[in-house]
Amino acid sequence: MSKGILGRKVGMTQVFDRESGRVTPVTVIEAGPCNVLQIKTVEKDGYSAIQLGFLDKKRPAKDRRSRPSQASRAERGHVANIKSKRQERLAKSGGQLAPKANCEPKKLIRELRCDASAFQVGQEIKADILSGATAVDVIGYTRGRGYSGVMKRHGFSGQRATHGVKKCHRHLGSTASHASWRGGGRTKKGKRLPGQYGNERVTMRNLKLVRIDVDSNLLLVQGAIPGPRGGFVVVRETNKKG
Amino acid sequence: MSQEILKKVAESSLKSEVPQFAIGDTVDVHCLILEGQKSRTQIFSGVVIARSGSGVKETFTVRRIVAGEGVERKFPIHSPKISKVEVKRSSEVRRAKLYFLRDRTGKAVRLRERRDAAEKA
Fold this sequence. Notes:
The complex is a heterodimer. Chain A is mostly beta strands. Chain A is 10% helix and 35% strand. Chain A has 4 helices and 12 strands, in the order E-E-E-H-E-H-H-E-E-E-E-H-E-E-E-E. In chain A, the strands form 3 sheets. A 6-stranded antiparallel β-barrel of chain A has the order 1-2-11-10-7-12. A 4-stranded antiparallel sheet of chain A has the order 5-4-3-6. Chain A has a two-stranded antiparallel ribbon with strand order 8-9. A 5-stranded antiparallel sheet of chain B has the order 4-3-2-1-5, with no helix packed on it. The A-B interface holds A 10-16, 18, 20-21, 23, 26, 28, 30, 213, 216, 218, 220, 229-230 and B 2-3, 5-6, 8-10, 12-13, 32, 34, 56-57, 76, 78-81.
C-alpha cells in the first residue's frame, strides 16, 4: 500500500531540468520529520494504518489563560506516558498499556492507510520514505473564500451592466422554468448556487516528484498544490496506475 | 523562513558563472539544440533590449532584424541550454529597456558605440 508523509507547503519556484534544459515549475514542500504515534491493526481496529505526527506543539505555560493554544494533558498523554489514575488502575488489573512514541505533542496528526507491520511506534519518518516514487498525491485544504456568489464560485457570467439591469449585475439568472428539461416548474437538484467556497479537502493526484532533499527535509513536486503557503498537506505515493 | 528555503532550492538551478553583458550590447547567444541524440550550437545574434526578473527567473530579450522583419527572442539567463553569451559591441544607452527600437527601422535602429568599450577593444 501507499507510503506517505506529512508536510507543509513552502511555496513555488522553478528549477531547470539538467538534461532537457526545460524549466519545471515546482512547489516546495517541507516534509517531515514525522513520528509514528500509533499503529492501527486489523485485529484491534478493523483496518491497518499508521498515525503520523508533524511539528511540535508548544508545552502549556504556567499561566494557562494567556496562552491557550498549547497541548492539553490528553494530547501529551497520547505521545508519552504521564502518570494518571487510569494508568495505575490499568496496571493493577494487569491490562496492557498502549506503546507511546515518547516525543513532543504534535501540531498535525493524520492517519495513513498502509501495511503497518513495517512500522513501530516512535519511529521517525523522513522524506526519503518517498524515494523510489516517481509521482505523488498531495492532499490539502484550499484557501477559504467564505460564502461566495455564483460568479466567483462557479464562474457564471452574471448579468449585464446596462440595458435596465437593476442591482442584479452579479446575480445568477433564472433557476428553473416550466420546460421539463429545465426542471418542469421546480428547481432541479444540484443547481449551482452561492455558498461556501474553498476550505475544502482536495487531492491533487499523480504529481511528478521532481526531487527529494532528505538533508533539508524538502520535496519538490511539479505544479501547484492546494492551500496557502504554510498550509499543511499529506503527501503519499500516488495510487493512480499508469 | 519560507522565502529562504525557496531561495536555497532555486540556487541549485543557478549558473556558477553568469554571463556578463549590458543593455544595448550586441551579443551572440550560443544555444544548444538537441536533435535526436546529437546536440549542436545555434547562434542568435542581436541587441539586448531588456533584462527582467531575478534569481532563476531572470531573462533577457535579444532583438534582431531578419529579412526586414524584427525578431525578438527571450532567453532565461540560467538556462543550461545557453552555453555562452558573447559581447560583440557595446553601445551607449540611457535606459534599461530599449523598447523604442521596436518603432524604428533602417538606419534609426543603430545605437552609438560606447567610448570606453571601443577604446578597450
